[in-house]
Amino acid sequence: MAQDDEKTIDQLNDEADIAADYLEGLLDIADYDGDIEMGIRNNRPVVQIVADDDSDIKHLVGKNGEVVDALQQLSRLAVQQKTGERSHLIVDVDGYLKHKRQHLRDIALDAIDEVRETGEPVDLQPMNSFERKVVHDLVREEGLKSRSHGEEPNRHVTVYLKANADDEAESIDQDDYDDTDQVEA
Known about the structure:
The protein is α+β, with helices and mostly antiparallel strands and 185 residues long.
């Protein structure tokens, strides 16, 4: 299937089912309690692990989301193995992505305010492609421009004022829209 082709609701639900079964098996092996919720959001299958109580489910997020990122990659591989197609599956643990997105919005808004006050560009800390995309989208919504600089894992975003109408065609690298890292929930 070409990457631009839209998957059907049934295909997306199948991907979510495969990932949910895979994650359920991992939870059993690790002896974690949690409910698995599935759905489709923004034409992507979504699987969320939700804590039954105040258990150790937070360990499934890990430092800076490293564990949930790994769970997402493993789940995508499990889906690809069964379907033969690449998946844009989103895996979340106990609402981590929502909190992460809000934190990124706060960082971006602070940078936008600083750029507006000083007129000088502001460099942000290195981020993965998901994080950079969140920042780029918000900067564009706020009427400023942004650009990614550097190489992984030190790739970062710089926020600028728009100098003129030519800046409408912002210079956002396609790499920042690659969903190999966590994608929006």
